[in-house]
Every structure is written in structure tokens, then in C-alpha cells.
Write a structure and sequence with these properties.
The complex is a heterodimer of chains A (313) and B (415). Chain A is mostly beta strands and 313 residues long. Chain A has 3 helices and 20 strands. Helices cover 12% and strands 33% of the residues of chain A. Chain B is mainly α. Chain B starts with a helix and ends in a 21-residue tail after the last helix. Classes of the chains: A mainly beta (313), B mainly alpha (415). At the A-B interface, α1, α2, β8, β9 and β16 of A face α1, α2, α3 and α10 of B.
Chain lengths: 313, 415
């Protein structure tokens, strides 16, 4: 070996072995895994103590006396699209066409529906983001009290949910109808405190769903038998929410005035709506959060234009 | 010279290979898929900062400890004995490395029996998970399929015990009938612990999305003690609500009227009624289970564990989540009812529960019961459901299902 003339064959074998072993080491044994926890051990001890010491509620936690509403106002407005509305894709109606697509009718996606005449955007959710004392008449106007006992109607016909964007209160019941001559099931995904639910609803039948808690953002409602059927649903504890109509308008009446409020704005295709122009002025709503402070009896009217690029997700 | 180099390198490389990648130290993994989902729900360019991740992980560790040393958050629920939901002594039996203590009591039962499929974190992504179909359950969303409570409610202790004792036929989940009762008990407590832990992580990540840009969820070093107390209280309340749901499971059990006893003639009539219901528009079984009950009616849907990371049932939309540890989504098949293999158990009451309550996380809906006193209302009666159970149980015995002649068990030709 010291002659400087190593045997070429053994050298090749050795090189191959090195290459193979290196490759094995580099590739490793693991597939993609979530990263391990990044724990700050010192803080764990402090936090553990803090959680344990939290037994008696601090006396002054509520004495910071959050501002109280001084009356009620109205928040209304309209969402419009800047630019050309994207084409609504046709859905794959692959079952029971005689009921679901009579006469070979094309069924279009409702993920983004824009009114061709006015540019209004349908099914934009606007809802109060903060927790409010629900049994305090200063915060919840009396007009909302009776409605809590009224069920919200959710119907389906020709294998389409007739309300594509639905918002309701956690304490309300949802009355699910079926106006089709065939059976459906209503599969409500739920989220946060809103219970999931999945039950058959026979032809012409009706069933009830009570969410029991609120969700942070809208979730899916589907029919497992007809997978193209889709709706979005939001459940909130407070009554302050709205879903924009076909012309893009919405209205929330009797909103607590004289206190700073935070609403959130969400649309199926865009998620939380962040970049908008309100009354012609560009505004950024961080994480879809829209701050509003109303004066008593004031009607705040917002004209919100959203660029078509926001709906490209 | 050259050859000496090569020799050295080969030795080093071989040592590395022989040493192997080894098993990583037992630590909980971040819920990266859900964190990404929350980020995406805020916006395409939104990301939690690394100090925010560290904050969540630190809070999680302070509440739940580590896989070797589990701890429980300090909470109180009126009228509830929390040790019946999760008991620390039982957790200690199930947690940690496999072995036994000085008194010979077992330790590390979860790692001995469960972790290779369900993962240390209970994320259903243990080393063997990717080879199994169906995949092992991810406990973290806190959803379970086979139980006596409705969709949206937790399984009872008995429901989980049944799964451990009987296993899940038709899947890789084996029976643990041979384990002593206290070990099964310890494992169930540990599974509940992993679920509560996962549900808490989901809730904390959702709350974190609501904080101001880059801010921690609990700023333990903040000078403003009022703010800190408020943040701690929010976390405690979140955990309390999650544990409450588990504590309430027993209240949600749906009681089933006993199966009507029948003679042969009555049974045939019941099976015939069950067949009509199976094909009718009220029960609607045929739509998914198929015209011949072969499970071929609706085959392109997914289950909730995959669906929550997909948009529009498009498997490609799960790609970024697969990179974060999600197992590639597979479509969920309605059960082929001619095989006589029932995942949730083959007792009549098991099948009744599946029809009556649906199967959580899957497309299988709950039956709608006919409200009493309204003759026009549509729905099934409990007797109707027993008819369907009888029909379903008759299916594997129909000639078309190609039944085998009865042969005594374990009779094999031996050479």
C-alpha cells in the first residue's frame, strides 16, 4: 500500500461504501414529523406555580370597570368587489340528477357569489369578536331577547342548502328542513364550543340542532350523501352578527354604543378580510378585525370595496 | 495516503450507520398541522413567531408535563371527581419508559403497547402508522368513533374499555384482553390525558391567533400582574371546559330499549321490514352502503381527521400539512355489510348504536327518531332501527355474500 499504487478495485469498493454510508446518514430514518416542543424550562416552573396559585380569583380583576354602553346604534354597510368577479365553477352533481339538477341544470359553486349589477358580494360574515355580558340589557338590546327562543330555519332544495352563509346564536335552535323528495343528511362540522352534528333528514322531514357554544370563525356544513352540497355556518354567543345579502348589504341593529367594539369580517373564499377600501380610503384590518365605536342612535354606514385578488385562495 | 483517508472515512461512516439514527428522546411534538391551519385561517402570509410557539409549548409543559413525567393542570369542576377523568397515579403507570418500579408494578404501559402506532404525543403518527390502513387514531382532536354517546360528546370509560378489550375488527387495532384490568384502566386514563392535552393545544393556538401581532398568550414576565392573572385565568377556563366535556360523557349515554325477542317467523318479517327501510328515503342507508350493501355507494369522501386539513375534498390541498406530519389522506369507505366484520363490535347493540347515533368524524349520520305524538313527522322508531339491525346482521348470510359452509373452528389439515 505504500508504493503509491493502490489496487484500483479495492479503492472503488471503498469509495462506493463511503458514498453509500454517507447517503444513508444524510437521508436518515425519519419521515416528515412535527417539530419537538420548544420548552423554556425556567418558565415552566414559574407558570406551574402561577396556575396553582390562581385558586382564589383576584378581587380586583373586574374592578378595572370596563366602559359600559351608553345606548345603541346601527352598523350597516355593503361589500363590493373591485375587478372582475371570477367565474363560478360548476359542481359535479354525480347522483340523483333528476332531483338535484332537473333538466340538466348546471349547479354552480357558491364559494364567491357577486351580484353582476352592483358588484355586491354575498355571504360575507360580520360579527362581534369580543365577549360581552349577555344578561346585561345595556349590552344586549331587548329586541334580541325574544328571538333567542325562535328557531333558525335551514332548508335544502334541489340538493342545495338554501342559506349558504348562516349565522345564529349559540342559544338558538336550528330547524333543518328538507324540501326535496329524497333523503339528505346534515353534517355540521362544529368548532370551538359549537358541537359537531350529523343526522339524516328524510324527504320532507325536519330535525333540530342546538350548538350549545360559539365558534371563533365559520365552519362547514355538508351532506355526506351529496358531497357537492356546501354551506358555511357561524355560531356566536352575542347577537351582533350579520351575513351580507345578494346585493352585498348587511345591517346589525341595536349595537351597544359608546364603547369600543371589535368586529371580524370573513368570507369563504378570502378567509378573514384584511385589505379593504372603506369609503374610498385604503384600510388594513389586521386579521380581519374591524374596530367600531358607535354613538347612541348613530347609524354607521360602511361602503367596503375589496379587490378581487383577495379571493384567489 | 489516499487509501488511509478512505479507510478513515469508511470507518466513520460505518460507525454512523451502525450507531443509527436511534430513537429520539421521548418528547411531545408540536401540533404543527393545526398551528398551520390556524395561521392559514388568518391569512396566507400570517405566521406565528418562534417565541410564540415557545410560549405555547411552555404553557403546555407547565400544564401537562412531559411524556416521562405527566402532570395535570390545577382545575376544579363542581360535583366532579377529577381523578375519575384523569388520575395521576394511573397516568404514572402508563407514562414513561417501559419497565417496573421497585414493587414490581408496571410502568410505561403506553410506550409498551400503544406508542408505536399512536405516537408518543398521541398524534396517531407513530413509526408504524404510515403502513397501516386505516391509520391509527390521532387522539388530539378528542373525537372517537365507537361509543354510546351522540356525535359531539365524549366516549364513556366503558366505551373505551370495550375498544381495548375487543380491539377493532378489520383494522390493526388488536385486543388487549390479556392485560389485567388495572393496566387497561391506566391506559384509558392516559389516552384521555393525551386527548385533553391535544384539545388544549388546539384551543390555545386558536386563542393565540387572537393576540396582538407576535405577543405571547401568557406573558409571565409582564410587569402588569392584572394582565397576567387574566391570561392565566383564560387558559384555566379553556382547560376546564375541555375536561368538563369528558366528565359529562356518562350523562350523554343514549339508552337503548332491549332488542325485541322474536321467533323465526317474526325475525324474517323484521328482516324484510329492515330491508325496506335500508332502501327507503328515511333511513337512506343504500345511498352510501350501495345497492348491494357492498359499501360502494359513496366512496370519494374523507374523514374529519383528514378533512379538517383539506379544502373541497381535494387531496392535493393537504400537501403542506403532509409536510408537517399529516399522514396522506385516504378516502373513507362505507362498510361492506356483507363481510360480517363490524369495527365497533358485532353485538346487536353495537350496530344499533352506530345506526342510532352515527359515527363521529365520518360521513355516517345519526338516524332521525320519529318524535312521539306526531303521526306525520318523519323518522325511524327504535323498533325500526332493530329491524335494520336484523337486516344488516342477515346480510353476510345471504347466498350472494358467498358464505362458507359451517366448519368447526381451527380445523386444519395437518401434514
Amino acid at each position: 500500500m505504500s508504493t503509491g499504487q493502490p489496487l484500483p478495485a479495492s479503492r472503488n469498493v471503498a469509495i462506493a461504501a463511503v458514498a453509500l454510508a454517507t447517503a444513508l446518514v444524510l437521508v436518515g430514518c425519519e419521515r416528515s414529523l412535527a417539530p419537538a416542543e420548544r420548552v423554556n424550562q425556567a418558565d415552566v416552573i414559574i407558570l406551574r406555580k402561577a396556575f396553582g396559585a390562581e385558586e382564589e380569583p383576584t378581587a380586583d380583576s373586574n374592578s378595572g370597570a370596563a366602559a359600559e354602553p351608553t345606548g345603541f346604534g346601527t352598523l350597516r354597510g355593503r361589500f363590493t368587489l373591485i375587478g372582475n368577479p371570477p367565474e363560478r365553477p360548476a359542481l359535479d352533481v354525480n347522483k340523483e340528477q333528476e332531483v338535484c339538477a332537473p333538466g340538466g341544470k348546471k349547479v354552480l359553486s357558491e364559494a364567491l357569489v357577486v351580484d353582476p349589477a352592483s358588484g355586491g358580494i354575498k355571504d360575507v360574515f360580520v360579527y362581534l369578536n369580543q365577549k360581552i355580558p349577555l344578561d346585561d340589557p345595556k349590552w344586549v338590546h331587548e329586541s334580541y331577547v325574544a328571538a333567542l327562543n325562535e328557531p333558525v330555519i335551514f332548508d335544502q332544495k334541489e340538493c342545495i342548502f338554501l342559506t349558504h352563509g348562516l349565522a345564529m346564536r349559540a342559544g338558538q335552535a336550528l330547524k333543518i328542513l328538507n324540501s326535496d323528495p329524497i333523503g339528505h343528511n346534515t353534517n355540521i362540522q362544529g368548532g370551538g364550543g359549537a358541537q359537531p352534528f350529523n343526522q339524516t333528514v328524510s324527504a320532507g322531514g325536519q330535525i333540530f340542532y342546538t350548538p350549545q357554544g360559539e365558534s371563533a370563525s365559520p365552519f362547514d356544513v355538508t351532506c355526506s350523501i351529496h358531497p357537492w352540497m356546501s354551506a358555511k355556518m357561524l355560531v356566536r354567543n352575542s347577537p351582533y352578527f350579520a351575513v351580507s345579502k345578494a346585493d352585498g348589504t348587511f345591517e346589525i341593529a341595536n349595537v351597544p354604543a359608546g364603547v369600543p367594539l371589535e368586529f371580524r369580517v370573513w368570507q369563504e373564499k378570502a378567509g378573514f378580510i384584511q385589505k379593504v377600501s372603506v369609503d374610498g380610503e385604503f384600510v388594513e384590518w389586521s386579521k380581519g378585525k374591524l374596530p367600531v365605536t358607535l354613538q347612541p342612535d348613530q347609524t354607521l354606514e360602511l361602503s367596503v370595496a375589496i379587490d378581487a385578488s383577495a379571493f384567489s385562495r | 495516503m489516499m487509501s488511509r483517508w478512505i479507510l478513515c472515512l469508511s470507518a466513520a461512516a460505518l460507525a454512523a450507520v451502525a450507531g443509527g439514527c436511534g430513537s429520539p428522546p421521548a418528547e411531545f411534538r408540536e401540533y404543527a398541522t393545526f398551528a398551520y391551519k390556524v395561521e392559514q385561517s388568518i391569512g396566507d402570509d400570517f405566521k406565528f413567531t418562534s417565541s410564540q410557539h415557545e410560549n405555547i409549548d411552555t404553557i403546555m409543559a407547565s400544564l401537562f408535563g412531559t411524556p416521562d413525567q405527566p402532570t395535570l393542570p390545577k382545575i376544579e369542576i363542581e360535583g366532579v371527581d377529577l381523578s375519575e377523568v384523569v388520575s395521576l397515579p394511573k397516568l404514572r403507570m402508563a407514562a414513561g419508559p417501559v419497565g417496573s418500579d421497585q414493587d414490581g408494578r408496571p410502568r410505561g404501559l403506553y410506550r409498551e403497547h400503544c406508542a408505536h402506532c399512536h405516537g408518543i404525543t398521541g398524534d396517531g403518527a407513530g413509526p408504524t402508522a404510515v403502513f397501516l390502513n386505516p391509520y391509527p387514531r390521532d387522539y388530539r382532536p378528542g373525537k372517537y368513533k365507537f361509543k354510546s354517546t351522540p356525535v359531539g360528546y365524549k366516549p364513556t370509560h366503558e366505551d373505551l374499555t370495550k375498544i381495548l378489550i375487543d380491539g377493532i375488527p378489520g383494522t390493526a387495532m388488536p385486543s388487549f384482553k390479556l392485560l389485567p384490568a388495572d393496566e387497561i384502566d391506566a391506559l384509558i386514563h392516559y389516552v384521555r390525558y393525551l386527548s385533553i392535552r391535544g384539545e388544549t393545544e388546539r384551543a390555545l393556538l386558536t386563542l393565540l391567533a387572537d393576540t396582538d401581532e407576535g405577543q405571547p398568550l401568557v406573558d409571565i414576565h409582564s410587569k402588569d400582574q392584572d394582565v397576567v392573572q387574566e391570561q392565566l385565568a383564560m387558559v384555566t377556563e379553556t382547560v376546564t371546559q375541555i375536561v368538563e366535556r369528558w366528565a359529562d360523557a356518562n350523562k350523554a349515554v343514549v339508552n337503548i330499549p332491549p332488542r325485541p325477542s322474536m321467533n323465526a317467523e317474526e325475525l324474517t318479517a323484521s328482516i324484510n321490514r329492515g330491508r325496506d327501510l335500508f332502501y327507503g328515503t328515511i333511513a337512506n342507508c343504500v345511498k352510501c352502503h350501495g345497492d348491494a350493501a357492498l359499501g360502494d355507494g359513496q366512496t370519494n369522501d374523507y374523514d374529519e381527521w383528514a378533512k379538517e386539513f383539506m379544502t373541497g375534498n381535494n387531496p392535493a390541498s393537504a400537501d403542506p400539512y403532509i409536510a408537517l406530519g399529516l399522514l396522506p389522506p385516504r378516502t373513507i369507505k362505507p362498510r361492506n355489510l356483507r363481510l360480517g366484520v363490524y369495527r365497533g363490535g358485532n353485538r346487536p347493540i353495537d350496530i344499533f348504536w352506530r345506526i342510532r347515533l352515527g359515527i363521529e368524524g365520518t360521513p355516517m349520520p345519526a338516524a332521525t327518531l320519529k318524535p312521539e305524538g306526531d303521526p306525520h313527522a318523519k323518522g325511524l322508531t327504535e323498533d325500526d332501527i332493530w329491524d335494520i339491525v336484523n337486516y344488516v346482521q342477515s346480510l353476510p348470510r345471504e347466498a350472494i355474500s358467498n358464505p362458507q359452509d359451517a366448519v368447526p373452528h381451527n380445523l386444519r389439515e395437518r401434514l
